[in-house]
Amino acid sequence: MKLVFATHNQNKFLEVKAMLPDYLELLSLDDIGCNEEIEETAETIEGNAILKANYVRKKYDLNCFADDTGLEVRAINNEPGVYSARYAGKSNNAQANMEKLLKNLEGKQDRSARFKTAIALNLEHEEIMFLGICEGEITKVARGDEGFGYDPIFQPKGFNKTFAEMTLTQKSEIGHRGKAMRQLIDYLSK
Predict the structure, then answer these.
(1) CATH of the domain at 129
(2) Is 68 an annotated catalytic residue?
(3) In whole angstroms, what is the distance from residue 5 CA to residue 58 CA?
(4) N or C: which end of the chain has fewer CB within 10 A?
């Protein structure tokens, strides 16, 4: 079965591809010739995932799933949330986003946070939503070289490592995207 993952992000694509069973042929937006950035104009993480999946279904008539992920930090009103990728500006600069978040947390005792991934599946024009949440906290300094985005400053609850200090397999087992992906895989296996 061919399935499009509506992303241009190769790090994210490889992370998801490693989780999928062999009977699913995963294609990226680049693989189907979709070179445009799909606008994320919804006010929620779930809404952005739906926009992207439906865009591919409508324009390319292919089964598709799309995700959107947000980091919600309690002490700063659940920012950056839906704006996680462009928290420090439109350029989607991970380093600038982390620096802004750490600055906004200066002097705050509560560093609790959670990653939330919403996956919208558009399969034969039927829409299904899957959610994965990983609770944790924001560290005071970046640690680790693995992963991407906020991974160097997010330490999942019950662990003494950030996502960026974990292997891809470890992160997938406990992380938000892995949780949502397992729900998607279970659904596709039925």
Answers:
(1) 3.90.950.10
(2) yes
(3) 14
(4) C
